[in-house]
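Same chain as my last thread, 286 residues:
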Amino acid sequence: MARIGASVYTSHVPAIGAAMDLGKTHEPYWQKVFSGYEFSRQWMKQHVPDVIFLVYNDHATSFSLEVIPTFAIGTAAEFAVADEGWGPRPVPKVIGHPELASHIAQSVIQDDFDLTIVNKMDVDHGLTVPLSLLFGPVDAWPCRVIPFAVNVVQYPVPSGRRCFMLGQAIRRAIESFDEPLNVQVWGTGGMSHQLQGPRAGLINKAWDNRFLDRLIADPAGLAQVPHIEYVREAGSEGIELVMWLIARGAMSDVAAGAGATPPKVAHRFYHVPASNTAVGHLILEN
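reply #2:
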């Protein structure tokens, strides 16, 4: 059967992608950001999965205000890199895994979660920046990727509790797939940031680090945090962090229940600023 070997969490700041694409990673400002991913790139070389189930949010690229799916799974064989207004990023197209994606959709929908099945969509920086951060510049991504888009742009958005429960359903789906695949589940977006209004530029280091602490040691409790706390403490765009709870819910200690040993923390990184946001990054091994 397929298994989940690890979960990866990272911000997906668009300016990080631009810094990579324009060769600015060694500039003093950006070097501090990318230094936090040096370990991760070496770790990935030792832990390349067969498939990444990558949770991200579309930034009004494939989904507009005309159609707003709460949860959308990409089931296509490949996904083009989106043009977000300044041309597609110079990165490889994303190769999907239609068989596993379709199996997950079947299982999760039968597990009482409504998913939108997407057979054609372009993927934006929310998905490609995390891949670039962990794999660096490549001619082709070294594994297949299943895009899983979550609406955290237009209210109403899903609760942390809903996302955490969904992660558990995704784990059950993956583990019931009848091929010996090594799968990683990635949660992206965040951390604290606000892009508009009187609080534009808000950063809350203390809250961000408490979030990381609880994500590791108390994910079930963290899942109960209401939307208003994310908005108040982490800014209007801080709500993206609920997507990390999907990846955390897929880890084996959650399935084992109370008293289970938390996953191994392979790497943890936090830095301010990158553009006008905080950057968080975590790797947890089952």
